[in-house]
Amino acid sequence: MAGHKHPNYIKIYITLVILFIVSVTGPEIAKIFGLEGVSRTVLVLTTAFGIAIWKAYLVCAYFMHLKFEKIYAPYILLSCLSLVALFFFGSATDVMFADGHNWEKTY
User: Which H/E stretch holds residue 32?
Assistant: First the structure.
């Protein structure tokens, strides 16, 4: 059985904790410096979603061992994500807008 060398999980865990701290302090830094408007939105979204994507990659790659899987594992992941995106964009116009022929406003 051909194995792989296990990564240093403590190092990855410490990286995840540091990224968590940065993602939590991002909105606080925007509040401390009094950022408003677009600059605040960019800082908050970058620290929230950008770092969340990085953390998700680390968890999937190392803790779920997807980095060491066969080549078809990323294709399965991408196909699932594309189906979720297709479902979202296919139903978003029906869900987000309250005007249409079959909508009843109950308020």
Answer: helix 9-32
